[in-house]
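Translate sequence into structure tokens.
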Amino acid sequence: MNVQLKRRMALLESQRLALLNEIKDLNPAQLNRHEPGKWSLNQVFAHLIASEQLSISYLKKKTQGLKTLPDTGLAEDLKMFMLILSQRLPFKFKAPKIIVDNTPAYENAEQITEAWDKTRKELEEVLNLFADDQLNRKVYRHAVAGLLNIRQALRFFREHIIHHQPQVKRLLKDI
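Result follows.
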């Protein structure tokens, strides 16, 4: 795996493991506790996993024609900056319908961990397909920002988790 991708993946993994550590001892009732109209911890984790799974499916398709794809440029850098900013601000966003429709329910923390382990293993397999000169290819489609490169995709995954961390902390505090 490319050194840059490996470094970004390591950051993602430490972030994921820290989050999973927060819920490892929770029972199903605690994981599913929520106020009306709000997500439970289970739903937050399922959302993060589903968004990564759908992204990986898209990446797998795009890597089949990796050599022919155009590179990202300044426009994508600006879009990425705005995307990061949007994830850091305390605004709520409606999850894209495709993610909502493909978000499973997990019974316990073990199932959440297993699903996210499997997803991350698939992500590593996809990352291994990128040669050093293909890191700027437009391979990832974000619902708002459009086509981004693989480094930007990994940065979004990280920012997406950062965006949901306050929500997780609030839910944990209420347990």
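Note: Strands lie at 140-142, 146-148.
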